[in-house]
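Here is the promised in-class demo. Please do not try to memorize the tokens; focus on the logic of going from shape to residues.
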């Protein structure tokens, strides 16, 4: 059967723009690309503890068998959600199969007709996809610009408003001023929703996230945590009130109409949270590496090229898909897995190399990769 011509044209345009995506092959390069910030995805301790939990409880199930509202709400769900809620000082925690499912389920369901969603222009695609499913109106505000946000609020008096942002932005690695944002939210009685995907395991004494590290958790309507990054596994959770949990269970389609996570997936999440509580070494090592990375890029005069960030994501702007791909290839040839982020994933002219820092990166590796970068861009 012939491939549809209109789809072939779209692929050809991607090829011409040097932006065609292909699946990368596994490699043994030094990792500056993954979201495994504190190395939990390869933790033998968590692997063994999860296995031992199954042995101790005689659990031999490979799957959930159905949606959570039918047959899939196995006992590990209740235990894990209670643990997560306690850890994050939240009334409740509701597990979703992925961060994408959580965002689509929340934003496609919670805001109602007549409500208004105001979201940061750099919010993740999963948030934007959820907003597109919503029957509420939505407008974006300039990135981390709360004067622009306030103007939009003032233009919509007597409206129930949801303000949406991320605590760490995935492409820039920067953070909003949460105290200022909460002041705006409270001034106009808005509902604040924060995606903390790239903050879990990075900010806070135990990796609780940026909101909790600032002791602002009671000021936020909902927090969305995903586990494929700092926790090194899979799944996500929406943190909020008992009423919010009940609402999502009843109306979030990405929760209702999908098979639940397997017992093994939920047990891995549970053991990941136990690890955050008991071992702070990896989190401290990551913070040291973030500070060191920023020091070296200043020493090598690279700082003006980077987006300002104190998180594990450090992005250097190198305009042009072809140019940024070329420099990424040179770094990879020298043994470092650094990925190019191309337009249209980021706006044209904002193409970049995205360095993801980890607890397990050495100071020598950081120095060498930045020294190589300097030699390629200057």
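The designed amino acids, position by position:
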């Amino acid at each position: 059967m012939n491939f549809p011509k209109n789809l072939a044209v779209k692929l050809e345009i991607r090829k011409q723009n040097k932006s065609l995506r292909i699946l990368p092959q596994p490699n043994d390069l030094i990792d500056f690309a993954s979201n495994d910030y504190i190395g939990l995805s390869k933790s033998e301790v968590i692997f063994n503890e999860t296995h031992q939990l199954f042995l101790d409880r005689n659990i031999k199930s490979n799957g959930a068998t159905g949606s959570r509202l039918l047959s899939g709400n196995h006992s590990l769900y209740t235990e894990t959600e209670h643990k997560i809620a306690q850890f994050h000082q939240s009334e409740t925690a509701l597990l979703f199969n992925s961060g994408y499912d959580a965002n689509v389920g929340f934003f496609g369901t919670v805001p109602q007709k007549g409500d208004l969603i105001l979201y940061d222009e750099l919010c993740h695609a999963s948030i934007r996809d959820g907003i597109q499913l919503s029957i509420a109106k939505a407008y974006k505000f300039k990135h981390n610009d709360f004067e622009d946000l306030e103007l939009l609020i003032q233009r919509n008096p007597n409206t129930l408003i949801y303000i949406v942002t991320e605590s760490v932005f995935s492409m820039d690695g920067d953070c909003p001023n949460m105290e200022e944002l909460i002041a705006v939210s409270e001034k106009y009685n808005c509902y604040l929703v924060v995606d903390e995907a790239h903050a879990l395991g990075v900010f806070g004494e135990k990796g609780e996230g940026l909101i909790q590290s600032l002791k602002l958790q009671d000021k936020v309507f909902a927090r969305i945590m995903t586990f494929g990054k700092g926790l090194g596994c899979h799944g996500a959770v929406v943190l909020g009130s008992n009423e919010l949990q009940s609402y999502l269970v009843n109306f979030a389609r990405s929760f209702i109409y999908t098979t639940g996570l397997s017992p093994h997936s939920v047990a891995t999440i549970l053991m990941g949270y136990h690890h955050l509580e008991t071992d702070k070494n990896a989190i401290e090592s990551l913070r040291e590496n973030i500070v060191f990375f920023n020091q070296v890029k200043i020493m090598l005069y690279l700082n003006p090229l980077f987006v300002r960030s104190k998180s594990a994501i450090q992005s250097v702007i190198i305009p042009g898909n072809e140019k940024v791909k070329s420099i990424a290839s040179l770094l990879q040839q020298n043994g470092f897995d650094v990925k190019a982020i191309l337009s249209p994933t980021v706006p044209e002219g904002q193409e970049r190399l995205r360095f993801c820092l980890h607890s397990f990166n050495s100071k020598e590796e950081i120095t060498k990769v930045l020294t190589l970068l300097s030699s390629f861009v200057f």
